[in-house]
Amino acid sequence: MLRIAVTGSPGVGKSTVVAKVAKKLAGQPGFKIGGIQTAEIREEGQREGFSILDLATGKTGTLSHIKGSGPRLGKYHVNPETLERIGAGALRNALSCDFIVIDEIGPMELISGSFVAAVEEVLESDKPVLAVLHHSSRHPLARKVRKEFEVLTVNVKNRDELPEKIYNCFASQPL
């Protein structure tokens, strides 16, 4: 069972790398991908927050935004209800899929005990996993992922070739 996590500086392209791998794997006939994907919410060229997407169902919601009332992390307010309903729910449902994506295991997501528990369920499964890991998190779950996964650091020099490299690793495994 192959498990890879990508890490790197904010904005370097970690989520883009994972999205490219997931898209290519999803193109295989009869292959089902589950889990979550995050994306920036931009307004007038400025990052205003992050959305979260359930890859299996297409459900989406606002994970965090600069305008909000949830717990504050940096300049963003995290939406715990969306994180639990879409994030944790998508990870639990992904246990019935062939491949699981977790974008991201970071401070915003780790606010939710339900999300942490869902990630732990994924880690206890025998499913192949591709995750984005916050570069400096010291949370016990992040430490566990660093210990159990092959961790690749995304940077400006390798971010264009990493999706193909990671795809080939998973494609060469019996999924």
TrEMBL record:
Report the CDD domains cross-referenced here: RecA-like_Thep1
By what name is this protein known? Nucleoside-triphosphatase MSHOH_2791
Q: Which UniProt keywords apply?
A: ATP-binding, Hydrolase, Nucleotide-binding
Q: Which SUPFAM superfamilies match?
A: P-loop containing nucleoside triphosphate hydrolases
- List the catalysed reactions: a ribonucleoside 5'-triphosphate + H2O = a ribonucleoside 5'-diphosphate + phosphate + H(+)
Q: Which GO terms describe its molecular function?
A: ATP binding; ribonucleoside triphosphate phosphatase activity
Binding residues for ATP: 8-15, 99-106
Tell me, what does this protein do in biology? Answer: Has nucleotide phosphatase activity towards ATP, GTP, CTP, TTP and UTP. May hydrolyze nucleoside diphosphates with lower efficiency.
Per its UniProt record, what InterPro entries does this chain match? AAA+_ATPase, Nuc-triphosphatase_THEP1, P-loop_NTPase
* UniProt organism field: Methanosarcina horonobensis HB-1 = JCM 15518
Domain of life of the native organism: Archaea
> EC number(s)?
3.6.1.15
Q: Which Pfam families match?
A: NTPase_1
> Could you say which enzyme class this protein belongs to?
hydrolase
Domain annotation AAA+ ATPase: ranges? 1-155
Q: According to its UniProt record, which protein family does this protein belong to?
A: Belongs to the THEP1 NTPase family.
